[in-house]
Amino acid sequence: MPISMCRPGLRALPLCLLVLILMPGVQAAGMVPQTPVLVVDEGIGEATMNVRNTETRPALLHTTVENIEPHDQQLLLFSPPIARVEPGAVQQVRFMLQSTEPLQTERLKRVIFEGINPVAGVDGARVNLGVRQNLPVILRPAGLPVEREPWKRLSWSATAEGLLVSNPSPYVVRLAKAIVPLPGTQAVDLPRTWILPGERLSVELPLNVTVRTMAVRIFPATTYGFAVDYFDAPVTH
Predict the structure, then answer these.
(1) Beta carbons of 135 and 78 less than 8 angstroms apart
(2) Which pTM was predicted?
(3) Over the stretch 29-64, which tens digit does the pLDDT of each residue have?
(4) How far apart are CA 149 and CA 209, in angstroms?
(5) Would you say domain 145-236 falls under CATH 2.60.40.10?
(6) What distance in Å separates the CA atoms of residue 92 and residue 158, rounded to the nearest whole number?
């Protein structure tokens, strides 16, 4: 179900939240990563991810890393980019942080694990692409304390167009796309399900709704994408 189809009211939000947060995560088919998120600590300099081939035949594990931020540096090297994995076997992929300057904030990327199965056709060998596992990658600066509730650091304010949320913290904040202006029960959508450090996102609202909005109910997720209790954040006017 596409995320845009999920337009809940207040009571339906907890179930919808699970769909919103878990959909981009790991599916139990093909090449399955050990965890739903990869965290690379700058103080350690590297991390590993174990990926299991759940199919009944050998396959090639193809790994790629994609940038989230426009014009972002590569920052992350990995090995091996391609590896043969036997049925039921586990392949370890190593990720190494490479930065010319110390990280000042958390950075967000995505890693894609994809199984490639050789298929014998009548006109010769072909390949069949399996399920793509698309996971968030969080690069954490050395010495940055672990923040269990980074969503509480977000700042919400009312504007002539609606609501503005800013993230002055050094943490990547993950949350459901749906939020609820309070008082009220009608959900509206953020542009996406994460807010980067130093970033601002806006949500358009009718003026009569904006002037009555005293708080906003959000449905945050932990670093590893697990849903937690909703949080009501104050809105400044």
Answers:
(1) no
(2) 0.83
(3) 789 999 999 999 999 999 999 999 999 999 999 999
(4) 28
(5) yes
(6) 47
